[in-house]
Amino acid sequence: MKKKEYDVIVVGGGAAGLMAAIQAASTGAKTAILDHHEVSGKKILATGNGKCNFTNLMQGESFYRCDTPAFVLHMLEAFSATDTIEFFRGLGVLTKERQGYCYPRSGQAATIRNALMRRMEVLQIELYNSIGIRKIQREKDGFVLDTKSGLFASKSCILATGGMASPKTGSDGSGYIYAKALGHTVKKPLPALTALIAEAGWLKQTAGVRADASVSILVDGSCVAQDTGEVQMTDYGISGIPVFQVSRYASLALEEDQRVEAVLDFVPEYTEDALREFWKNQMTQISGDMTWKELLSGIVNEKLAAMLCAQKHLGERTIVSVNETKRRQLQRELLHLLKQVKLTVTGTKDFSFAQVTCGGISVEELTEHMESKKVPGLYFAGEIVDVDGICGGYNLQWAWSSGTVAGRQAALRCKVRNNDAK
Q1: Among 34, 200, 248, 264, which is disulfide-ready with 358 (CB 3.0 to 4.6 Å)?
Q2: Domain count, the chain
Q3: Residues 162 and 22 in one domain
Q4: How far apart are CA 347 and CA 92, in angstroms?
């Protein structure tokens, strides 16, 4: 059977795959994308609630989770957030920036995807959708990919298949199978940037409440992560961006059968001493029928106030119904609760809910050019690698940066091999 031959074949048509192909073709390589999904770049359309937060001007190793943070920094130096903005500007996309968060000015994620697709057409990158890959085999002169649509051959191959998050967009973990068959180890993929499932009898009572709070993750009693923002209470646990930011640490600990707790501080901007002074003044103005719940409602949502009162079996009890000593004790206990409500975390929402994958190909098995240390000519880009960013455009920036490095280096390798052959 005759093979379709290319310099570079990119497996996967997500953000990293599209960028890798564009950069490889821009460097002069004959390039093709093999994508098993019927629509390439579909996951891009869902980012930023359809508005596509495609990068962030605030960058640094603290925004990425990886065994070797310096590895990520090297990629960001090779293709920075500023480079990303200029790249898309060159494709006709203007940027709207808010406190470092960058979006296409159109407010539509489709703008980013469509710009990439147009650039691919200009560069004559061949795109094969709905293609099933049976096997990727390393041969002397490169790679042979056995697919349901025939055989493909390339001098360099880039795996940019994504992880397992949002499987409806094509991230089904197939890239891990190819990588393992080629000799790579895969750190177990786990959901990240996702909601947490927790045990607490009062969750149904507070479901739907959104509260400015901080959430800390305790693993066997020690705090391993913390973030602050709008936390959403649900009937199954807790959600919202700050919960997403710390969820990977819960995923990893639960996988190791460790005890995981989430601690909520519903007034993170105030110390207990500051709240005590606030209440001290309030206590001089209480009316005879004022309840503890009403006192708390001046600080937090009424449903949260009711939940906190329920923890102390206060119900609709009035403040003056208890003596002075008991009153001071209840104030201390309620203030402490405001700052420290604990939930036992029993799980995370699955990959269909998660925004990104924790785990994958270890950066220890890759060179600084995103090339495999085990298989020369094999490159990786994007979420298939064990690098995950926090919310805010960081995972897309990782896709652009790693895709750029992999694409350019894969093409340069082909040039060197072609020159050697001459």
Answers
A1: 248
A2: 2
A3: yes
A4: 43
Burial class of residue 295, CB neighbours in 10 A (0-12, 13-18, 19+): buried
Q: Which of 288, 323, 349 is the last residue of a domain?
A: 349
Domain boundary among 313, 329, 349: 349
Helix (H) or strand (E) segment spanning residue 191: strand 186-192
Residues 52 and 171 in one domain: yes
Question: Is 227 found in the same domain as 181?
Answer: no
Q: Which residues pair with 223 in a beta bridge?
A: 218
Q: Is the same domain home to 166 and 206?
A: no
Q: Is the full-model pTM beyond 0.85?
A: yes
* Shared-domain flag, residues 215 and 332: yes
Whether residues 365 and 304 share a domain: the answer is no
Give the three-class secondary structure for 72.
helix
| Contact present, 251 and 358 (Cβ < 8 Å) | yes
If DSSP states are collapsed to H, E and C, what string results for 291-358?
Answer: EHHHHHCCCCCHHHHHHHHHHCCCCCCEHHHCCHHHHHHHHHHHHHHHHCEEEEEEEECCCCCCCEEE
Same domain, 118 and 206: no
Backbone φ, ψ for residue 370 (5° rounding): 65, 20
Say which residues have a Cβ less than 8 Å from residue 89's Cβ, sequence separation at least 6.
95
Q: How large is the average pLDDT for residues 64-88?
A: 95
Contact 60, 31 (CB under 8 A): no
Instruction: Specify the CATH number for the domain of residue 96.
Output: 3.50.50.60
pLDDT in tens, 336-361: 999 999 999 999 999 999 999 999 99
E-strand spans in 195-294? 196-199, 210-219, 222-233, 237-239, 260-265
- Per the structure, the complete domain to which residue 309 belongs is given by 195-349
Residue 49: count other Cβ atoms within 10 Å of its Cβ: 8
HSE at residue 301, side-chain half, CA atoms within 13 A, is 17
Q: 153 with 271, same domain?
A: no
Helices (H), 37-193: 42-46, 69-78, 81-90, 109-122, 174-181
Q: For 84-99, what is each residue's pLDDT tens digit?
A: 999 999 999 999 999 9
Q: What is the largest CA-CA distance in the chain?
A: 96
DSSP structure class, residue 418:
H
